[in-house]
Amino acid sequence: MNDALDRLVQHAHETRVIVIGGGVSGLVAARECAKVGLQVTVLEASGGFGGVLRSAEVGGVTLDVGAESYATRGGVVRDLLIELDLGDQIVSPNPAGAWVAGVPGVGAAPLPKGGVLGIPDNPFAPDVRRIIGWAGAWRAYVDRVRPPLTIGHAHSLGRLVRSRLGSRVLDRLVAPVTSGVYSARPDDIDVDLAAPGLNAALTRTGSLTGAVAELRARRSGARAADAPASDVPVPAGKGPAPGGAVEGIAGGMSRLVDALVADLRENFVDLRTGVSAESLSHTDGVWSVTTSVDDEPLAARAVIVALPEGPARALLAPVVPGLEIADPIAPIVEVVTLVVNAPALDLAPRGTGVLTVPGSHTAKALTHSSAKWDWVRDATEPGVHVVRVSFGAQGEEPATAALDDDAAARLALSEAAALLGVELSASALIAAHRSRYVQSQPAAAIGRAAVTAAARGAIRAVSGLGAMGAWISGTGLAQVIPDARDEADRVRSAALWQS
Predict the structure, then answer these.
(1) Quick one: which of 210, 249, 461, 475 has the fewest CB in 10 Å?
(2) pLDDT of residue 204
């Protein structure tokens, strides 16, 4: 037995795994492989690790300029932070909640906190009626007297809400949430995936508003002893969440990346930046990875691809039968972070941020970071505020796309003034930073589950190969991290026992 164990340990030290992509999923996968003694090399094409977890110094303050938070569901991100000795740096946002702007005849109003994906449980509640009006409330009440409807897997969120509750609920409550959270239209969101259990609750209660009430009551009871959680799944870094199911890290989410990199270095992982994988080949159980900088291909027993969907498919398709090279219609998102001298924002006039009715504003969402996070507020001088303005959604080029950085900052400042309801002159701008990234298609998009399941099945059929990342696991660290661990465990187990 000892001889067999010794041989396994020796084999682990001689087994090389190459991880292509240094975002969070790639770093987590590398850590899982290194835990069992495998030799691990991480290749990252850019100059730094972390992917959408990015930070930058803006106006003398180090701030998140990519994802700023993570969903608390499952506790997986919190557990990882505790493992990395960051548990005492976990912070919760201000529970004040978000507003919605661009409401016809109203302008801006607090987004109702009760509901699921913006669907209210009571259309006559004052905060709901303020946004949809009496006409919208009475139209939504028709839902209570209509026959029940089984949603079905092909029934979209948009069509369901429109038919049951009317266009005002859809356009003014649901669309701002799906645009801000998913960068997607309600018509493209699968109800069963975005709101599990709503279908069954609708059948039981006979109305959509009744189903929302039942679902919220059941969730509230299930988490009574837990930290507050939202009814809206919020991928890390999206607009202000209508609820409190997110946490952050004091000093910024990039501290998670720094901790992962430090841990990998302590475990002798070979971390390389500025190196992209050009091609893969597989012969006699050995993988060869041609890179942009090495004269000879790198050899490995296993390869894990942790890239965005487009680059991942392009790299994998030649070695994975049945995997098509697709040109996914993924939203391009630009986030402009502003540091402004604006004492008028001291009282957080519109909560922790603003979602917009699609088509009403150039920006899709704004986060008032100084109001949302105490650590951001404490890092700035009195009267100085940090706001993040997001542009771009599915099928919509960001309004900042063709602008230079100065023009993008001016547009973001103008949008911030409009969304927050305060005057922000050009002289109020202290500093700005612009960040651009491709957002993965939401896992709740209609038909998306079948697409990713087919891709994963094709990849797993190839020995010694794995793939991960938001495009295949679903967006948000709460989905990306456990998926990366599971996929890394599958790959490393096969590599360890490979003869």
Answers:
(1) 461
(2) 87
Global confidence as pTM: 0.90
Phi, psi of 20 (to 5 degrees): -105, 105
**498 pLDDT band (50/70/90 cuts)?**
low
In the block, residue with structure tokens 């959509």: 208
Fold identical between 2-51+254-328+443-497 and 55-95+248-253+329-438?
Answer: no
| Separation between Cα atoms, residue 413 and residue 408, nearest integer Å | 9
Cβ within 8 Å of residue 90, ≥6 positions away = 78, 81, 247, 248, 249, 250
Burial of 483 (0-12, 13-18, 19+ CB in 10 A): buried
| Domain 2-51+254-328+443-497 architecture | 3-Layer(bba) Sandwich (3.50)
Q: Give the Cα separation of 92 and 70 in Å (integer).
A: 10
55-95+248-253+329-438 homologous superfamily: Protoporphyrinogen oxidase, mitochondrial; domain 2 (3.90.660.20)
Q: How far is CA 423 from CA 99, 189, 354, 498, in A?
A: 18, 36, 16, 65
* Structure-derived torsion over alpha carbons of residues 53, 23, 393, 247, reported in degrees to the nearest 10: -40
CB 236 within 8 A of CB 71: yes
pLDDT of 233 higher than 50: no
